[in-house]
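Recall the central idea of this unit: under ordinary conditions, the amino acid sequence of a chain determines the structure it adopts. In this exercise we apply that idea directly, starting from the sequence alone.
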Amino acid sequence: MRRNHLALPVLAAVLIGAVPAVTASAAPVPPAAPAASGTSNAQAGGGEGGWEPAPSAPWDTAAGARCDFPVHGEPVVDEVVRRVLEIRPDGSVKRVAYAGDLVVRVTNTVTGASHDADVSGSAVVEYGTDGSQHWSVLGPVLVGVGENGGNLPRGLHVVDGAYTLDIDPTGHKTVTMVRGTVDDLCARIS
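Accordingly, the structure predicted from this sequence is:
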């Protein structure tokens, strides 16, 4: 299993647009940290060094939403924690780092075929006030894309390398790859 210094949380839910955790059109913004603007999370009592658990929820997608068949995803390793790096004057979270291993079992619920995807990539996520997100990523991340929902084709993909991921307020995802690979999970479990 790959070990990186930072890993993505709720990755499956946020990037896949899973049901019921979140929808593809509205990724969640983390709750505001208990700190005033300019205060670090560690000073605000966000746990040792400012890190707190950020577990990923199981998710399901219908046939045709990502793959041609229904898919279930569930973390089998989830040691993810988060640290709020910056808070806006209104108390809302602006930037968050995530750390810890995350392996998601992705299953074709028709055939039972599954694949354990190591998505322990590194990321710092900046949350826009309009619901947009900007991810600076190093390593593997599970990205789900609906029909015409991004610059990757419809599907479930493990994107690995150095890249950014922008999610606009409508949920449209744009991956800008510096260097890396894309693995089609729908093909792996079809």
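The two ends are 24 Å apart (CA to CA).
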